[in-house]
Records
---
Amino acid sequence: MATTTSSVTDICLAAQEASRQLAATDSATKDRALHAIADALVARTPEILEANGRDMDAGRENGLDAALLDRLLLDADRVAAIAAQVRDIAALPDPVGEVIDGKRLPNGLDVKKVRVPLGVVAVVYEARPNVTIDAAALCLKSGNAIVLRGSSSAAHSNAVLAGIAAQAAEEAGLPAGTIGLVAGGGREELAELATQTGIVDLIIPRGGEGLKNALKGVATVPVIYAASGNCHVFVDASADVATAVEIVLNAKTQRPGVCNAAETLLVHADAAPAVLPAALGALRDAGVELRVDGRTRALAGADLAAGLLDAGEEDWDTEFLALTLAVGVVDSVDEAIAHVNRHGSGHSEAIVTNDAAAARAFELGVDAACVYVNASTRFTDGGEFGMGAEIGNSTQKLHARGPIGLRELCAFKYVVTGDGHVRG
Amino acid sequence: MATTTSSVTDICLAAQEASRQLAATDSATKDRALHAIADALVARTPEILEANGRDMDAGRENGLDAALLDRLLLDADRVAAIAAQVRDIAALPDPVGEVIDGKRLPNGLDVKKVRVPLGVVAVVYEARPNVTIDAAALCLKSGNAIVLRGSSSAAHSNAVLAGIAAQAAEEAGLPAGTIGLVAGGGREELAELATQTGIVDLIIPRGGEGLKNALKGVATVPVIYAASGNCHVFVDASADVATAVEIVLNAKTQRPGVCNAAETLLVHADAAPAVLPAALGALRDAGVELRVDGRTRALAGADLAAGLLDAGEEDWDTEFLALTLAVGVVDSVDEAIAHVNRHGSGHSEAIVTNDAAAARAFELGVDAACVYVNASTRFTDGGEFGMGAEIGNSTQKLHARGPIGLRELCAFKYVVTGDGHVRG
């Protein structure tokens, strides 16, 4: 069972103990445990829904809004989807043991750089109880023990989900302590978890800015902060107008509330007379609020001008996460690159162009996790990239950049083999 | 010239500006700049020695001890060696632009994972002025701008060295700001440097625990802390006695003051009667102080027993960095692994064995940057590993583990190319 009543430190120590064994556990055993978890989730759906019902009741009493209640809600279909995701993760290749690099040194020593689990990964998250299982499955597959810390609003759901998963994993042969859940959802538990130096190897927050800021203030163990995305689409002088309009529309409107949606459109001055009326018209028709600079307004045409708002300086730095787009005209690829590097958050940046030199300049010059040439920013996603799944998306440069999949949940070690080699 | 009189923030901003250009600078240009730096160092040796003389005078006045003065000292040979090291770094393969991974997704998008510079790397260091040039050359080769912050005891030497390097780099076509030096060596400058979030991408401290602790208290930008090394040699039941003695002797005595030297010898009980007298005798003859557990003492033989000290609990956790070794007997490979994981610092750990199963268990079970089978721990080194050079050695698990060479001074980005792809 998940050790939901132990202290944070006890849970972390148990996870560390388990992690030593997990690092040497073969893929077949881990996959069996994942399938056992999926089976148990389906078989014990009534328990899960009963616990979730208690969280939903409390949420309604506490006045949670409809969106939060929907995130909290589980039903049989959602539980089945969670179980299916666990089976999908089981089917992914095991990253542990991959030989990343290897060679024989001139002195005959064999050096292998081998992927290994990080050890103990803590995941702190908010209202969605499905994260309990998604995160546990990703960590287990990558050979890590996991310590979960959800929010108090989902406490009953999380406790039952983690308990089912921990029991199934243990019965399938994994060490006790593989999946631990911190019972309290308060700031004290967060601080205790975030200061387990030498025990917890990584903390991943999955939640809003409040959660990230709470961690920033206290964490002494490494944290990978999931990204905010102030993403741009730059339409170059040579761009095909129809392609440009389609990409901008997709990047802005296909799912505006996510971090890889575009927030600013930049158009090369030479393309602007053709591109802007078409793009702005399509965006307006899709219900997008347009905040534009003076040059954009001048080129938009009388038909559109009335509906445009003037962009303020802060609009270039804003992640709207809504049907709002800042639009500006630039005179060159270099100006576009400079704008992106100044205002972007290093997430996903796109150029639409038919000019090979412009594409190359943008690829080299833009400092971001993902740089797109003639494609929508919306593809930045572990699933889309063929990683199978992701636990978040990093805009930091160390360790993991872009989607955090199974490999990014790993470290490596050097294994060096000789036959009595000593250093001269 | 190095901007030695600007504020820390100005230097960092200039470095960031330079880093944008450096990321797109080809290898030939960077290598030309490195050779220009080496040439200038040799040509301007008198200036360097004059400045170093002033630091040496001040050091003597301030009562620096002989070891510190020796670290501070430059002469024509040492300057020539520094210049030669720069040429060696120029000759290494450029890590920037390496395609780490790549594939075509089912939808036809091409995804390439490409190595790119981190951006701005700050290196904070102590008395050795040669670090000024070593660190600058490694960062320049890997396409990073560098901000250096040395100690006040080497201020004149560092200013001249950084000035020569910055001027040579700029004259060779690299952007101004590529090599910056923070003038003050005080804690205030350190704190200002360590909080340049969004400007400085990484800080690497090269120095003692005092420097690391000073950083830990203030840093908000990512830091890779160089390692302490509490390294072990475990002699398994099946080990060849002569091989075991040779490896232990090398790991302990070849250079006892460094982080990859062994600090504890563990011997399997089955091998102890043969190994201990031979190993302890050789170690004693090499002048090593031996702190042993009771079982070791009992097996050492009357000849050796008188010279042995009793190990205290703290000895298993101590990085002696001297001719001192803790010695214990264990009953199994698993006990050795558990001891290493409990007391080691995750640096370099060796097993001496002829048993394939024991070697495999140790490789899988020991959680360290470098795990050795039948080789001395002393090989953990960027040069030995064929990385050409290193800027430090990491015992952390995220991003860089083990030697930090040119590749470890890089991040990566995904470059995604389509022909109008949008997400459905």
Note: DSSP finds 15 helices and 16 strands in chain B.
---
Amino acid sequence: MTAHPMLIAGEWRSAPADASTFQPSNPSTGELLPDTYPVASSAEIDALLDAGLSASQTLAETDPTAIAAFLEAYADGIAAATDELAALASTETGLPVKPRLEVVEIPRTTGQLRQAAAAARAGDWKQPVIDTANNLRSQLEPLGKPVLVIGPNNFPFAFNGIAGGDFAAAIATGHAVIAKAHPAHPGTSKRLAEIALAATATAGVPTATIQLYYRSSHAEGHRMASDPRLGAIGFTGSEGAGRKIKAAADAVGKPAYFELSSVNPVAFLPGALAEKAADLATEFSGSCLLGTGQFCTNPGLLLTIAGADTETFLTTAAANFNAAPSGVMLVPSLPGELDASVKALVADGAELMGRGTQPTEPGFRAQPALLRVSGATFLGDPKAFQREMFGPGALVVVAADADELAAVAEHLESSLTASFYSASDGSDDALYDRLVPIIAAKAGRLLNDKMPTGVAVSPAMVHGGPFPAGGHPGFTAVGIPASLRRFGALRCYDNVRAGRLPATLQDKNPNGVIWRLIDGTWTQADVAS
Amino acid sequence: MTAHPMLIAGEWRSAPADASTFQPSNPSTGELLPDTYPVASSAEIDALLDAGLSASQTLAETDPTAIAAFLEAYADGIAAATDELAALASTETGLPVKPRLEVVEIPRTTGQLRQAAAAARAGDWKQPVIDTANNLRSQLEPLGKPVLVIGPNNFPFAFNGIAGGDFAAAIATGHAVIAKAHPAHPGTSKRLAEIALAATATAGVPTATIQLYYRSSHAEGHRMASDPRLGAIGFTGSEGAGRKIKAAADAVGKPAYFELSSVNPVAFLPGALAEKAADLATEFSGSCLLGTGQFCTNPGLLLTIAGADTETFLTTAAANFNAAPSGVMLVPSLPGELDASVKALVADGAELMGRGTQPTEPGFRAQPALLRVSGATFLGDPKAFQREMFGPGALVVVAADADELAAVAEHLESSLTASFYSASDGSDDALYDRLVPIIAAKAGRLLNDKMPTGVAVSPAMVHGGPFPAGGHPGFTAVGIPASLRRFGALRCYDNVRAGRLPATLQDKNPNGVIWRLIDGTWTQADVAS
């Protein structure tokens, strides 16, 4: 069978007959799917960059209402194709059609696209600032170059390079996107690109606003990351690949945002466990096992203090893990990687407390795993005990006392989230107040009394944190309009004649709704004349 | 004579007797000054980092009014010592006491410190966002670690690591600063640190809020940049040193901001020259020669189209340059570097149009230089003709026509500023509209009808741009509160109990003046109950 074409410069282009190709698998069966996809050549990468640059220059001058119309037409197209897309993605990822793909992830994705459209139309992401006394006016503006978006394996829609959060943010701020499909779900990505291409025509934006390839050599990927035609990068994926892309982008000072790894510590303070240890164990187990644990914010490291209630918690949690069926994982290597992590943790001194059913069905299946380790053992090699177990695995650190727990907290690396369960009667408050200052600066989001797996697309959400959890501690990958600001260049107009100013910096508020900081006051009004 | 001590952990510590030392010079005489300063050892760097980390942890929990009080007490102390400081800085830099140091730079510096104090007190830099429906609240917060500030040679006060814009921004956001004095003005920096130390006592902030060293080995500098105890870096200086510091910080994902090099293109469009070529030549000459041209925003590359008015402009400008006296430069190497650049440009095909008086007095004196080159020659090697001539030097590109000028614009590298002079009657507007989209994305600030040398400390100012002019295109080094946001970490409070929220995220507006984005509306009001 001929390899599927790539979307380059508005056309579906087939790779040369001698191009390298690859085949995705069906994780539920473990079998290769019949479709083949090409590895992009150097010439194809150049064509993507050229077309993306040209489209970005056009988009930087395009009325945001046309860009919003594109995002909304695309969201409509995805919604109309929900059944087909969910079936296709389920075949490529092993994720269930319902509720995960149809009820949760596709609506989340179209919702993000519509929020991004609204943000493009309102323009608030630009944060215009006007100082009338000095006639200085500044705002965030498009980079004028395309954004490369490399999505992860675990969200075929909501974080897909051609449809997810980074995509929506880059488009809404006036950039063309060069999307790299994750090679585990290339067919889903291609179908999304077809729908997006149709939406470009509906909205009248350049066809090269969206382009798609599936894979390149590492060398071509690094070349692309440092190419002057590229404006910025959004990358969600493995730490090894991400660090190399980051180095290439950093060397030329290109903005690049990463989400690489996170163990998401959850502290169960003694008073909380005294109140409801078993309930909390079940809440934790459900969160950790959801979607075979394949979430960036999966709770992977639990912090407790030794005691009878902690043993109750562990007993219940272990029983839940022991009873858990094996789960399908996204790509062939993941179950083995989880097994290897479990073995390594045991070799380092952790104890296996619960292990899900041994898989008997075909497919890329993993056994959930719950481990425990003493605080003292953890402190002997804090780095080893913070290895990310991607999937349904977690390590419970049982500290001897509050001092040892504080010492463990001191050694935590960066994460996307940090969660604290504490007693309702205030009995944990002193310990909370001691631990939070140690841990809070290491994570983008601090939670009370809830699991970190839910990531609401809401303006105040932060999905990020210090490197390598995030790429820059000042930004978030989820939450609109904050996530859009990652792709903005701050530009000042100094004494620029009135008729030459961008609409959002002119005296008159261009749409009546954009918030502007005029002489120190945030307002939707015009500049007073 | 014993080497001057460093300010480490609140104490003036002398280096060991066998430490390497250096002596600054008096640029006006060319002679070494009698004072010696130590090169910091590895142990001293560690002591700076330890004390800075501890102080930063305290400052992150300190009431911003105490931090504001420190900044204001420090500004008061500088103002009170103006005469002494200006005399000392003049000896070390060759810059005139009046008007430059006493009338311009010291008041600018105290003004920045006071603006930063006001920003700390108001808290707007945090940009709090509250979504009541989801009970999500987020804001920018201190990193919890110290900021290393490395200042340049050309502003002994306004960009000094111990007193300038990066210093003020880092302190106002709740960080301790580890300042590296520029080795060309260590005495000025030490005197500033003494005044700052006294102000820490007045305001009751940790004494290690401010620390000072003078020099380290390159290896120690790179180790410091990647050390986990350090939160962020602000660097203004040479591109070679900056790129190495950047690589060390990038490898560990540490936020680092740079201002490295900029030629600041100024386009004189034909209609503007037709109106007043000679006046514009004098305006340009004054800007380029001011302060011996030692400004980051010095106009170093002029863009023109061939014609009689351009020749008038060039004739007048050349006469101004020919009549210019030699000027004192900051460090011994600079006059020679300027000479070498002039020779290289001539060798590449530029023509020397004006050259200031040959120096006869002692000191580090440079001859101003004005050169011209055709657009065609420029296009033969655009990179070579954009070498930064730090000091009183500029290259005028004379393009054959508008198309050639547009081609020149396409090849411009990044700069802090881009300026356009155009006719008052609209006759240049078509050319302006053609050139600006090419050039604007390459600079942080676009100017009309004025020279770029003035950089107002105003909220809408942008002093930055794409790398290597700036370090990240989304930020500015000048302008409050925007410059403060560089040092913020975005943190979200998800379902966090009301009593545990930071004051600025609680329902009640803590000071009645901080602007917060509550459910999509910027307001100074409380959250509606």
Note: Chain A touches chain B through 75 residues (CB under 8 Å).
---
Amino acid sequence: MKSSLFAAALGALAAACASAAPSPADPFDFRQAALVYPRMNDGVAQGQASLVGNGQCRNSNGSSLSGYQPALYTESVRPQIHFSPTVNFMNDPNGLVYSNGTWHLFYQYNPTQNVAGNQHWGHAVSTDLYHWKNLPIAIAPEKEGEGIFSGNAVIDFENTTGFFNGSTPKDQRIVAMYTLNTDTSQTQHLAYSSDGIHFTKYPGAVISRNQTQFRDPKAFWDEKSSRWIVALALSQEFGIVFYSSPNMKDWTEVSRFQSYGILGYQYECPDLFQVPVEGGPDDGKMMYVLAISINPGALIGGSFVQYWVGDWDGSKFTPRDNAVRTMDFSKDFYAFSSWNNSPGKKAYAIAWANNWQYSQQVPTSPFRSIQSLPRELTLKYYRPTPQFGDLILNNRPVNLSAIHGKTLYKSENGNSARNQTVNLSGQGAFDITATFKLPANANITYNTIASFEIFAGDGKQSVKTGIQMGEPAVAYIDRRGAGQSFAAQNPFFTDKTSGIIRYAANYTTASSENADQYVLGPLPPSAYLDSTDQAQYIKLQAVVDRSVIEVFVNDGELAGTSVFYFDNDQIPSKVTVSVGDNKLQLVDLEVRALNSIWSKCKE
Amino acid sequence: MKSSLFAAALGALAAACASAAPSPADPFDFRQAALVYPRMNDGVAQGQASLVGNGQCRNSNGSSLSGYQPALYTESVRPQIHFSPTVNFMNDPNGLVYSNGTWHLFYQYNPTQNVAGNQHWGHAVSTDLYHWKNLPIAIAPEKEGEGIFSGNAVIDFENTTGFFNGSTPKDQRIVAMYTLNTDTSQTQHLAYSSDGIHFTKYPGAVISRNQTQFRDPKAFWDEKSSRWIVALALSQEFGIVFYSSPNMKDWTEVSRFQSYGILGYQYECPDLFQVPVEGGPDDGKMMYVLAISINPGALIGGSFVQYWVGDWDGSKFTPRDNAVRTMDFSKDFYAFSSWNNSPGKKAYAIAWANNWQYSQQVPTSPFRSIQSLPRELTLKYYRPTPQFGDLILNNRPVNLSAIHGKTLYKSENGNSARNQTVNLSGQGAFDITATFKLPANANITYNTIASFEIFAGDGKQSVKTGIQMGEPAVAYIDRRGAGQSFAAQNPFFTDKTSGIIRYAANYTTASSENADQYVLGPLPPSAYLDSTDQAQYIKLQAVVDRSVIEVFVNDGELAGTSVFYFDNDQIPSKVTVSVGDNKLQLVDLEVRALNSIWSKCKE
């Protein structure tokens, strides 16, 4: 969060809300927080929070559920397998860290309104990245006018900060770094926790710069230089500045990454992290990726994430080239952040699944915004063209088996099937996966399209996704028919988005003498095709969840995330899988219901 | 033009058309060209073409008008002030050169079908960049399977090529350089003309590279190194390669610009050209801009143009930074090309106003595609943010006075006006320009929007453009309501596009000791505001022309180009100008009809 647009735009709203707020009577009425600006740990002080147990139904502001029980997580627009706060407005994921068997998700949260403002760090935890348990607010502002803006968290195994005593298990030593926003400055601060719930603020700023646009720290322990490194955005100067520290308290600027990619209006949420290469001669090797969110100013409108693959030498990030790549072809994937301390040399991440162009106006209540599906990231060599190899961030959902429900349809090797309609019975969340085959040397037209159309219960509204075959093939999402009342009046709720599909490099046909050959240099066109039948196979997966669709092509080579809002309280109820002309074949199809992660709240 | 997508996709179509073509009976039936593959100058051989006179109504393939007379340039979707061919498919502008008082516009043209393929260089000329006279095809393939692909043209004043004799005036010595496409190669070739109409091919390739993806030469006489330079796209390697030559025939590779910006599937149409700085301490200084079109793979889907401002040292282009910028925020501006030899240190350019995602399917007949309005380009210092200065390509229509018609509405200093409806009487082409004022310190919301809604005659369909105020303000185009029949079925015809608005640097408040201060380094926030009343003024201009809208903010700081297709043969007939809330004021408004450039064809 935080453009001056929103600060400016919401000034009037915030003031209006404060003056109209009810008098503080019900201690569980989340709205009263607008008046009192709850201090850190107010919720926790009740002693009810823990990292285990069946507390999933706790309110996101730490109070009991009395203020919201009746319709908890059952609204027609409420995703069932995506994280969202019980009430009010959420944006960026923050403080992502794996600690003592638990995945922590903090997030930018306004506990008092369903628009941005009054920023706190909300908190939830999971053991599988799908089932989330709401915890009380972790970090709150001290006084009116302050905001706890985005940041991240690390595990201080060796107690370099001195914040912990010997009795705290090493992997429970959580240090959060966040931006304290005021009208006159943005400065960087620490808070720490020994139990993963209660946070203590370290007094004073650890980095300040006489800046109002300086935020979103992403710190990590740097193995190369044996010290802490933090990336911070000089948002309106379009610079990412790196600092180093031995103890998280004393920081020294070491380098700057300046004016790369799409600038837009501001850089936000820098994230430098390591990602394993998947497949090929570098399989398992960890490489660095720098991600930067920008808002507004995405070419597609509003918010988006761009990234560079490169080298980190302990002080400086050097991208492999001057090209800019994006993680998601659609409009609702922003403030991307990776988990620190992920076990097993894996990279996991999540993003806010909305866009500042309309996120404060979308027709969801009493909450606004969700986090994306958790993603597992790898780097893979792809062939964007027959003449070019590229190391691309692969981006697929974390294994969905944790939430798999009933199989609604399953076919394999059904080469003759052209169209298939499957009723979507369940709670509104489904995993639809198909493989399409374009036979060798088939002529293609603009209508050589394989697609899913997911209908609302009324049979009229629908959201679509598909693949237009060709060189390159193109994946798209089309939400034009998915609800009119919001889309028709909002000038920024773009209907159609698309991205081009690359092809996995065919390692077996390339010389392996030089790893660079996998990156630059020709491969035969047959690298596009299956080696046995010279056909082209494309796998399309759509995870649809009431008001969001996330599309993955070829297990994450390409991803697209779009929210949509059916009118009249409709939820997904039927999918039609079809191929646009008879050259294209539906090879296999599986449709599964996904189980609500909030089901315990409904018992 | 030319992705293998289209080659592959159209193979079947081309074959089908050839077999279904009529027997050659009518010598003016343009369709027969499908069979005979007309050789270069077939049309000119009739001796009817000239650069002057009232021949504007000639068919685009050089024949008389008998095959098309009845509805010439009168279709409801036919723009009246934009260049389009009488019949069949046009794409990239080519060979843009100013010669002997005449602006030449060549273009990629399929004289035989209303989809891409069978590429020729079509030709038109103008003395004001608005009124175009169709001339016969300038360069045609010699045999089936060849295509005359994109390229440009230069004036060989000093006859370095030896193509001209002393009697040819120096500024009539036109040399075109184009790509010859076959199934197995793309090579670069020359053709020359002493009269601006008839072209003679120079035998053989002047640059070849054992490449099938090597095209779109843009040559110019380089003042820095006193030799010819050409930029060429290694399209699927994502490189722009520069060559030098003393004589346009013998070329030596001198440098390469590799892997910058958005890569997409291919680089096309590189253009390195000089642009004057407008205003500020560098006023009048010429700087270099490198533009690259990419398709597909634009973040907004399909085709777009990106550019870099930088230095050219006679051999190598070095961008000022690693950021990438775009010329147009919407979907229909591609294959940008500038005119060589423009008089008076000015930069003029044009682009194809469509997108390969749907250009071969849009509901226009018997023609497809138009060129954009001609643009005058300058470089201006802008403030994308209070903390950052940037040299941005300013992009405004060439002075419209050449086609100005009746004034339909004109108000000035009408501070109290909030909404204004003006009937659009004329031929379907209009210039709508308004200035909006946001008073100092006004609170803004998401509804602080100033907008134009241009209605079809049925009063139901409309295309919209507007500005949402804020920091930054955002301009948008919304074609969601402008016709359903095409938009609802095409998965790539995106409805809503937007771009952020920057602010002119306030030179008078900045130190002028160092020109770089205008580029990097803080300026006071007041640079955003008018110095007298601290209000924010934004000027919005929409040129709407039957099936296209081009939007310009603040005289070209931001531009957006969108085609749209009203159903039921409707044309623009009414505009409503409105402000979304009462903080915003409509300061002045002028609505003018624009005169059809094709009117002589209708007499």
Note: Chain A touches chain B through 75 residues (CB under 8 Å).
